[in-house]
Every structure is written in structure tokens, then in C-alpha cells.
Amino acid sequence: MFKKILIANRGEIALRVICACKELGIRTVAIYSEADRNSLPVRFADEAICIGPPQLALSYLNIPAVISAAEIANVEAIHPGYGLLAENANFAEVCETSGIKFIGPRPEVTRLMGEKEKARTAMKQAGVPILPGSDGIIASDGEALEWARQVGFPVIVKASAGGGGRGMRIVRNEEELPGLFKAAQAEAAGAFGNGDLYMEKYVEHPRHIEFQVLADEHGNVVSLGERECSIQRRHQKLLEESPSTQVTPELRDQIGAVLCKSLAAIGYSNAGTIEFLMDKDRRLHFIEMNTRIQVEHPVTEMVTDVDLVKSQIMIAAGAHMRDVLQGPIVHRGHAIECRINAEHPEKFTPSAGKITAFHPPGGTGVRVDTAAYAEGVIPPYYDSLIAKLIVRGKDRSEAVSRMSRALEMFIVEGIFTTIPLHRKILADEDFRAGKIDTGFIERFLAKNGKSEHLQP
Ligand code: MV4
């Protein structure tokens, strides 16, 4: 096992990795920007190194600075967390050439999955169900029209270098195709320096359901079931749960088995998430793969009792899956996560500042992953996620009740947060009935009037 790991991240996920390291008896090195000098990861890590000024490009995204810190601290491995450098294949490559183990998949696999059209083709060849669409990159709007006629409208044009909702256009008829194709191409070229596009049949009002996998470096892959992530706003997830009310044990096992076979064939290793869209007929269609630990990983941990971050570290150290899991994967109960963001309730813009009062809820079945604390300051430079409230219940109904009371008892003052929004979502009839899809929040906000939620 590693003796010392550097955590190339900040906030709650940096603290989450420190927790795993402490339990594994691994020493930790935090890196931090000048804005995070007083952060909890700095306090709880065994060592901490300042790597630069607050701006991301000069600190957490500055690869030479991160690698220098790792070399100075003499660590054996780097955990990238999520976001930042987590899916940067070049960073993983630099780690490798510097003799530092990157805790994640091999750079080639990260690069493959980062090119969404290649990922689609690779998963199709490996036997994962995908949507009807183009074969490869579409060269021109003329070719796009041919594919669209073959697939049938509506279609969606997506940037191959995109993902997470950027550089997409829904096309409903032939007339609007040339214009939307060119717009998507220009947007993708501008945003990613790569205008490559591909096409899929458009699924109306899908659910977003993703599968968690773990793969060791010896060809063993396991599926840990799904997470339902349909409650999103502008491609930012707000609330996730596991299991999905729409996934039967048979479907879970069937997709799980396909994924294990496919990812072994691709040579995948470490933790990964495979995103699907579920259509009205409850069929799952692959859309993208994320080659990192995800924000919402705790809901899977709560229902399986598998520590995914510990598993990532053990796998990177060369452990066999049987030693990582120490038994079969069993799904028990129901878990829900609410993302507590520091943001303005109407503008949904980040709300930085000093937290004047902070009381996280506790009690049976409640988990709070956070690096926030009373009198702490939320800097304006970074992601607005300040806490994750996760609950587990024996079934969905108990989890919903437990989340409602936990939200009631969560005090954050001094900044705006999404806590009041979550309280209302948890009280919503459709949510309680499990009537959710990716259009839920739009309907919810229309129904509830933009928002009345709350004071800083
Ligand atoms: C789609 C789709 C419908 N049909 N692809 C948005 C984020 C990116 N990961 C993929 N996205 C979508 N792809 C096809 N063929 C609808 C969406 C989509 C969406 C997906 C997941 C969660 C929220 C969403 C909100 C709007 C659109």
C-alpha cells in the first residue's frame, strides 16, 4: 500500500479523500491556493503545500505546480478527486512519467472516453446499448441531413469534445438542420478548439440514470448498481438517489453484466460511471462515461456499504477486486443526496462570503460531506458546492422523510444556499411519487413561481 498520497483538489472531496487515507493508514499531503489557507483539508492533512494564487489556472489546474508539490513531498500517488484535473489525460500522463501513480484509469482510456463519439463507438462495439445515430464524426451539414433522415427526427447534434450538455443542439426538422449544425460546430470549435460533431436520436423527457463500476488492474470489473440523477438544473445535478424506482433487479443485473464485460474489454481500471438515458419504455441507452469518482458517489456507498474512495486507492496500489470488496455486493435500502450549493436562489449565481452560522444535521442514517464550518469563508473562485447531505432509509419513503427532517435541521447562515429549494423539492407531490425526469426542475419552478427561497 502507498505510504503517502497527494490530494490534487479542494473542499469536501479533498476532505473525503483524507478520510479514506486516514482509515487506510496513508499519510496525506494537501495542496491549496492562497484562498484556501484556512480550509479543513489543510488542517486535517499531514502536510500542506501552497501552490499559488486563488485563480484555478494558477493553482489547482497548474500541472507543473501540482507535480512540483508531489515531488517535494515525495508522494507515491495523486488522487485528483472530481473536476479540476480528474479527467485530464495529459495530467495522468505527466504523473506517470514523473513516477507518480495517478489514482484513476490509464491516460489512453481517459482520452478515449473524453472523445464522446469515440466512446460511443467503443461502447457499441463492446456490446453496450446505444441510441441510433451517426457512425463517426459528421463531415458536413449535407451528411448530417442524410443521417437525420435515416435516424428520424427529432435528432440531437453533439460536440465530440463536449459532454455535460455543452455544444448540443436539438433538431426537430429538416429546415432547421443546416443552421443548427453550423451553430453547434462553431460553438464546439470556440469552446473546445474542436468542432467535431456526431448525432443521436433525441429522447424526449428522458431520465438520467448512471451505473457505478469498479475495475481492478487485473481485469476484474464489478457493477455497484445505478443512481437516478434526473433532478438537474442547466446540466448541474441537484439531487441524486439510489436505487432508481425504474430499474428492476433484472435490468440492474443485465446492464451490470454487459458493463463488466465491456469495460474489461476496453481495459478500464479504477472507479467509473456510465451515463444512460432511460426512455418512456424504460430502455437504457448509453450516452457518456465519466472516468472519475463523482460528486454523488455517497448514495452508492450508502446502499452498498462499499467505500468507493478507499477502493480507488487500493485498486491503484494493485489490489485484487476480491481483497477490495471482501464479499458480494448487496444493495440495502434507499439513499438520497441533496447538493447544498452556495448560490443565489433566483439568479442561481454563486453566493460567496462568510458563513456566520453552521449546524449540520445528524442522527440515524444521515451523512454530511462538507469542508464548510461556522465563521469559514466561501471564496468566489471555485465551484459553489459547499456540502452534500446524504441519507439512507430502509426504503424510499423513509429516505424521503429522513431527508426532509435533516433539511429542516440544517442551518447555514451568512450566504444563500439551495437548502430552501431542496426542502420544497422534498415536499413536492411528483417527487414523492417518483414522477421525475430531466424536465422535473423546469416544471417544478414553473409550478412554484420562480422561487421565494430565502435569506443569506
Ligand atoms: C441527450 C438527450 C436526449 N437525447 N441525448 C445533456 C447532457 C449530456 N450529458 C447529454 N444530455 C442529453 N443528451 C439524446 N440522444 C437529452 C440530454 C439532456 C439531459 C441529459 C441528462 C440530464 C439532463 C438533461 C437535460 C437536458 C438534456
Relevant terms:
single chain, 456 residues, alpha+beta, Rossmann fold, Dna Ligase, domain 1, D-amino Acid Aminotransferase, Chain A, domain 1, 3 domains, 8-stranded antiparallel β-sheet, 5-stranded parallel β-sheet, 16 helices, globular, binds ligand MV4
Structural overview:
It is globular and about 60 Å long. It has 3 domains: 100 residues, 3-Layer(aba) Sandwich (Rossmann fold); 70 residues, ATP-grasp fold, A domain (Dna Ligase, domain 1, 2-Layer Sandwich), CATH 3.30.1490.20; 248 residues, ATP-grasp fold, B domain (D-amino Acid Aminotransferase, Chain A, domain 1, 2-Layer Sandwich), CATH 3.30.470.20. The N and C termini lie far apart (45 Å). The protein has 16 helices and 20 strands. Strand 9 and strand 10 form a beta hairpin. Helix 7 crosses helix 8 and helix 13 packs antiparallel against helix 14. The chain has 456 residues and is an alpha+beta fold. The strands form 5 sheets. Strands 13-12-9-10-11-14-19-17 form an 8-stranded antiparallel β-sheet, with helices on both faces. Strands 3-2-1-4-5 form a 5-stranded parallel β-sheet. Ligand MV4 binds next to strand 6, strand 8 and strand 13.
Q: For the record, what CATH class of the largest domain applies?
A: Alpha Beta
Which CATH-level-2 architecture of the largest domain?
2-Layer Sandwich
Radius of gyration: 22 Å
Tell how many strands the DSSP assignment holds.
20
What spatial form do the alpha-carbon principal axes imply?
Answer: globular
How many structural domains can be distinguished in the coordinates?
A: 3
Q: How large a portion of the residues is in β-strands, by DSSP E? A: 25-35%
The CATH homology group name of the largest domain: ATP-grasp fold, B domain
Distance between the termini: 45 Å
* Major sheet strand order: 13-12-9-10-11-14-19-17
- The secondary structure category is alpha+beta
Catalogue the ligands: ligand MV4
Per CATH, what is the topology of the largest domain? D-amino Acid Aminotransferase, Chain A, domain 1
Mean pLDDT: 96
Binned, the helix content reads 25-40%
Sheet of most strands? 8 strands, antiparallel
Query: How many H/I helical runs?
Result: 16
Poorly predicted ranges: 452-456
Instruction: Name the quaternary structure.
Output: single chain
